[in-house]
Amino acid sequence: MAAWIREILLYKWYDTPDGEDCIKKMIYLGRMSGIAGMAFSYFEVGANRHLIPVQTPTGYAIRFVSSTAPFVAAGVAFGGVTCLMCSARKKDDFWNYFWGGMAAGGVVGVRFKSGTLGTVAGILFGFMAAFKKQSKKEKGLFVFFEPSDETVGQGQWQKWRFSLSWQSFDKSLSKYYEPRGHTYYFPSTVGPFPPAN
Predict the structure, then answer these.
(1) Closest of 101, 109, 111, 106 to residue 78, by C-alpha
(2) Which helix (H) or strand (E) holds 162?
(3) What residues pair up with 152 in beta bridges, in sequence order?
(4) Where are the domains of the chain?
(5) Per-residue pLDDT reduced to its tens digit, 9-64
(6) pTM here?
């Protein structure tokens, strides 16, 4: 039992391909969105103290949990729908992520009791998720903080590239547009500056 819990806690979204380990993916996204929800709730409870009917620690705790729960539910809904769509359709494409985003937006609509808000949030989340999936798949636009394959100076420095490139979406534009990438060096073990070339 302890090994399974440790495996769940150390699991990351891209450890397995999409469509596999749906329960682990749901728990992972529920955990990550729960952390974001707790950060939001901390400020939300502090800013809206006057809206809490009972000014006691219990009243604050109830407001904190009720503000955090939609974040967790949206993360779990996104992870579950995305993974189940991928395994049911047998296709690993951006449509799975789009429908996962729509499910997460539906949770927002339920929380605020507004079908319009849920629809708008679902479309927005769906497009953002589909865009992320497509950029991850093609290693193109808006995939930040991914290490390159090369290291500098006997593995002491890892080279990270931050760039915006439209080339992965339209190859014909590559002859007209040259992306301006910036390369930064972050130490993996020692030293504050990149090695001299």
Answers:
(1) 101
(2) strand 157-162
(3) 157
(4) 2-137, 139-197
(5) 888 888 888 888 899 999 999 999 999 999 999 998 888 877 777 788 888 888 89
(6) 0.68
Reading the block at residue 80, the tokens are 């579950």
Q: What gap in Å lies between CA 119 and CA 113, rounded to an integer?
A: 12
Using DSSP, state whether 111 is helix, strand or coil.
Answer: helix
Pull the structure tokens for residue 137: 């798949």
SS3 call for 197? coil
Burial class of 193 by CB neighbour count within 10 A (0 to 12, 13 to 18, 19+): exposed
Taking each continuous run of H as one helix and of E as one strand, the counts in the chain are 5, 3
HSE (side-chain half, CA atoms, 13 Å) at 72: 12
* Residue 157 near residue 194 (C-beta atoms within 8 A): yes
* The residue count for the chain: 197
